[in-house]
């Protein structure tokens, strides 16, 4: 590349050897695409499992995120390559649909791509590889159905749900508190679940955090927390059997819509104006008192005069509450959001057993707890932690646990973790390959080898000898015909994942295999990469 100038002194760039540049086509394009996919998978491979490492990500504006959640890592990575972006979307799809297994699905896709590269080098056409992978994924999904187990749970028997959520939290930074956090997640989901319809609305679960305290102080609030305090320091800090007026209209005199000017040239006129303004405030407060409200929550602010009047009339108030929080408060308390004072009626008031203001530590931070609501189907998980990064990572971990609990309520089938399901599927796929006489049997066997790579990654990350560990577990599964043997990542002393209580949801594991296969098939069928400069 060289810089030159034309006769008018305008600079232009000469790109040398441009005629020698060739566009990637055919097998070269496929290999380049596979390399890009493998590069992304290699980044996440070390984050897999309970002993997986964390990644530190720095954003362009200097914010630092420490996490081992696959979806978060890929979301915050600055990826330019189009194939690598497909892997990012793969992880995002798993996160949206299942909520857990975002690292595993990318590692699986990377392993399948690696096997595809070897098959391409042996001269097998990409279409046959894609067909073989499709057959192998169907065999694996059917086998997962075969080895899955169902368990019964209910409001009184939540232990199976807690154990499955603990498996999810085992691979997170918060694993030292996995038992209490799993219990909080399960109780939150059961509070908002409709067990008859097997449906859970996660929008009713609010996850809030505040820096300070320790992770063990995280609590489940059966109601709503609002990061606000009473508008006047002398207002009561605790209100029992509260009747709440939820307003989106401000405590202030109405303003004309057009331009206006008020001329005041005498003291009497000023007094008249002030009395009129005070009458507006009086009427607004009186309307709230007349309908029986004992607490006012307002979306807008109000000036000192209105605040003073509210305090003297013994009507506690909270101002500047956000729209989303107002909606949650309305859902929880069974109240209606009122846009005008004229529409305020006793039927539109929300009801809560207790509203209290809580202070934290030696700081002036205060929060409002609205508890024992009329409609208890809205809850808040309130997280404490030593710093902002810890709280954000705990929020991500809690989200994964909530999604797992929701998936189990929808479908209560589980498979055992620790790589046991992948090893069992690998054995089943390997055995099924002999039934196919065509070229696709090579791809089916390659898929079985790719399934083993997840267990190898788990063993590597746990500091074990990968090949020896996998061989021992695989032979044990075949010998005893028991699909519950997996990698003993935590060095408990047994390979039986049923004894270790390591569970994963069936739909999560099936989704991993299906999504990884779909993306790999798409990548294999791309044989030409055309950039904007090529046309």
Automatic annotation (TrEMBL):
Function: Molecular chaperone; assists the folding of proteins upon ATP hydrolysis. Known to play a role, in vitro, in the folding of actin and tubulin.
UniProt lineage: Eukaryota, Viridiplantae, Streptophyta, Embryophyta, Tracheophyta
Subunit and interaction comment: Component of the chaperonin-containing T-complex (TRiC), a hexadecamer composed of two identical back-to-back stacked rings enclosing a protein folding chamber. Each ring is made up of eight different subunits: TCP1/CCT1, CCT2, CCT3, CCT4, CCT5, CCT6A/CCT6, CCT7, CCT8. Interacts with PACRG. Interacts with DNAAF4. Interacts with DLEC1. Interacts with SPMAP2.
PROSITE patterns: TCP1_1, TCP1_2, TCP1_3
One cellular component term from this protein's GO annotations in UniProt: chaperonin-containing T-complex
CDD domains linked: TCP1_epsilon (cd03339)
Alphabetized Pfam families for the sequence: Cpn60_TCP1
Subcellular location, record wording: Cytoplasm, Cytoskeleton, Microtubule organizing center, Centrosome
Family indicated by similarity: Belongs to the TCP-1 chaperonin family.
Protein name as catalogued: T-complex protein 1 subunit epsilon
Keywords per UniProt: Acetylation, ATP-binding, Chaperone, Cytoplasm, Cytoskeleton, Hydrolase, Isopeptide bond, Nucleotide-binding, Phosphoprotein, Ubl conjugation
Domain of life assignment: Eukaryota
Catalysed reaction equations from the record: ATP + H2O = ADP + phosphate + H(+)
Main subcellular localisation: cytoplasm
Example of a GO MF term: ATP binding
């Amino acid at each position: 590349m060289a810089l030159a100038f034309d006769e008018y002194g305008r600079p232009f760039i000469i790109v040398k050897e441009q005629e020698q540049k060739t566009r990637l086509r055919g097998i070269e394009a496929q290999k380049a695409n596979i390399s890009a996919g493998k590069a992304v998978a290699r980044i996440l491979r070390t984050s897999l499992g309970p002993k997986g490492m964390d990644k530190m990500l720095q954003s362009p504006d200097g914010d630092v995120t420490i996490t081992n959640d696959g979806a978060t890592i890929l979301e915050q990575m600055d990826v330019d390559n189009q194939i690598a972006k497909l892997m990012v979307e793969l992880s995002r799809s798993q996160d949206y649909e299942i909520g857990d297994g975002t690292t595993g699905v990318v590692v699986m896709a990377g392993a399948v791509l690696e096997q595809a590269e070897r098959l391409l080098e042996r001269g097998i056409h990409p279409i046959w590889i894609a067909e073989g992978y499709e057959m192998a994924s169907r065999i694996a999904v059917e086998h997962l159905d075969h080895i899955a187990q169902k368990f019964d749970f209910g409001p009184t028997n939540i232990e199976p749900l807690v154990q499955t959520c603990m498996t999810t939290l085992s691979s997170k930074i918060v694993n030292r508190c996995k038992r209490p956090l799993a219990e909080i997640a399960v109780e939150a989901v059961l509070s908002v679940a409709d067990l008859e319809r097997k449906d859970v609305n996660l929008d009713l679960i609010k996850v809030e955090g505040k820096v300070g305290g320790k992770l063990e102080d995280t609590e489940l609030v059966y109601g709503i927390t609002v990061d606000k305090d009473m508008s006047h320091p002398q207002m009561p800090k605790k209100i029992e059997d509260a009747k709440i007026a939820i307003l989106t209209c401000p405590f202030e005199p109405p303003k004309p819509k057009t331009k206006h000017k008020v001329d005041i040239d005498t003291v009497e006129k000023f007094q008249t104006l002030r009395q009129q303004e005070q009458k507006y405030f009086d009427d607004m407060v009186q309307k709230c008192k007349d309908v029986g409200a004992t607490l006012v929550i307002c979306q807008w602010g109000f000036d000192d005069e209105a605040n003073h009047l509210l305090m003297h009339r013994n009507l506690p108030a909270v101002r500047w509450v956000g729209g989303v929080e107002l909606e949650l408060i309305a859902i929880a308390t069974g109240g209606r959001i009122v846009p005008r004072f004229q529409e305020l009626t006793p039927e539109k008031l929300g009801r809560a057993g207790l509203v209290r203001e809580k202070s934290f530590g030696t700081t002036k931070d205060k929060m409002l707890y609205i508890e024992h609501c009329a409609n208890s189907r809205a809850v808040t998980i309130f997280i404490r932690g030593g710093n902002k990064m810890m709280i954000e990572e705990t929020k991500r971990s809690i989200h994964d646990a909530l999604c797992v609990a929701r998936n189990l309520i929808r479908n209560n089938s589980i498979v055992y973790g620790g790589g046991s399901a992948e090893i069992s599927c690998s054995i089943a796929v390997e055995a099924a390959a002999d039934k196919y006489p065509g070229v696709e049997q090579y791809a089916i066997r390659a898929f079985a080898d790719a399934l083993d790579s997840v267990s190898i990654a788990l063993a590597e990350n746990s500091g074990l000898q990968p090949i020896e560990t996998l061989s021992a577990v695989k032979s044990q599964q075949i010998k005893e015909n028991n699909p519950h043997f997996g990698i003993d990542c935590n060095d408990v002393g047994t390979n039986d994942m049923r004894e270790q209580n390591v569970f994963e949801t069936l739909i999560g594991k099936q989704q991993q295999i299906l999504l990884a296969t779909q993306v790999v098939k798409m990548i294999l069928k791309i044989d030409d990469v055309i950039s904007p400069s090529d046309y």
